[in-house]
Amino acid sequence: METLITDNIEIAASFLRSGELIAFPTETVYGLGARIDSDEALQKIFLAKGRPSDNPLIIHISSQGELSLLTDQIDELSQKLIEHFWPGPLTLIFKKKRSISNLITAGLDTVAVRMPAFDLATSLINKVGIPIAAPSANRSGRPSATSCEHVMNDFNGLIPCILKSPSTNSIDCLTKYGLESTVVNCSGEQPILLRMGSIPFEEIQKVIPNLIHYQTLNSQKESQSILSVIPLSPGMKYRHYSPQAKVILIRSLSELPLDNESKAFTSSGFIGLEASVDSHSFQNIFQKSLLCSSVEEYGANLFSFFRDCDSEHIQTIFCETPPRNGLGNTIMDRLIKASLD
Ligand code: TXA
Ligand code: MG
């Protein structure tokens, strides 16, 4: 199959309407979408990604009104979060309506929903006329795709269409955040953050102060010998965000035995923060390096840097660990998962 790259929303919407998959940009990462009312279309997502069927999908909506198609129970805390963060990179978990396909929810009684803050995405959903289920548009286990080119690398010939922004001529323009949405579940007794993401934990805690991270909750329960440890978001147990290169985390460049004659790092990459590095000291040592001027820039470029290193067959990527607060924690989460074998 030939993969069409287009900036024409009508063409992309017509693929979705007829039960085909398309990849589309959001403010976080590219999604691989299918209409929510066709199991045949939804199956294609799992097949194309090589995604395990017990990992549920996020439903993307274009207006708050569409939420009532998916759930009858919008709790008070979720409502507060919607008011603060939608449209935006926050996914909320609700008790699902019976009509929602089990393929989307992987048999759970809850459904994950988000409203992207990206006009092209919401216009697309609006044109299709029903919400769109979409995981990140990468082959399972790979770093998420933050440009049209990344999607092509993973899905060329496997999906019929990629929608790209008309505002950019280049196919390698990156999505704004470059990290996935934050996932929060307020539908139970205790509001829990299930996946760190583009909105930092602290920002959400400002709106709902009793928000707790699932790891904190699990360690509390363990210490109290309560057996019902909360399961993670199902997707969290899988290998994630991994480039082909080996990812090694370092606190600072001084951990590496660098000197200007060093040949040991020629097939290596380095990504880190400008502020902590003397940029002249190592420029010629790594095959590829990226110094970011902020944690936001680090987050927006991380997956793209991983993929660029892979296309240059770099074998080792050294990643400087970011400060352990705000978005730094989200980046750290991705780095740790990417560094696991
Ligand atoms: O930014 C994003 O969230 C991107 C863009 C495309 O919207 N999407 C994305 O989807 O990252 P995906 O499928 O790669 O990650 C969805 C995460 C998975 O960890 C999945 O297990 C979790 O959300 N999830 C989905 N439904 C859930 C549910 N009912 N309960 C708990 N976790 C759920
Ligand atoms: Mg994903």
Structure, explained:
This protein has two domains: 4-228, DHBP synthase; 246-339, Rossmann fold. With 341 residues, it is an alpha/beta fold. It has an eleven-stranded mixed β-sheet, sandwiched between helices. It has a four-stranded parallel β-sheet with strand order 12-15-13-14, covered by helices on one side. It contains ten helices and 15 strands. It has helices at residues 9-17, 39-49, 76-85, 102-105, 119-128, 148-155, 201-207, 214-223, 295-311, 327-339; strands spanning 4-6, 22-24, 31-35, 58-60, 90-95, 110-114, 132-133, 161-163, 182-185, 192-195, 212-213, 246-250, 268-273, 288-292, 316-320. Helices cover 29% and strands 18% of the residues. The structure holds threonylcarbamoyladenylate (TXA) and magnesium ion (MG).
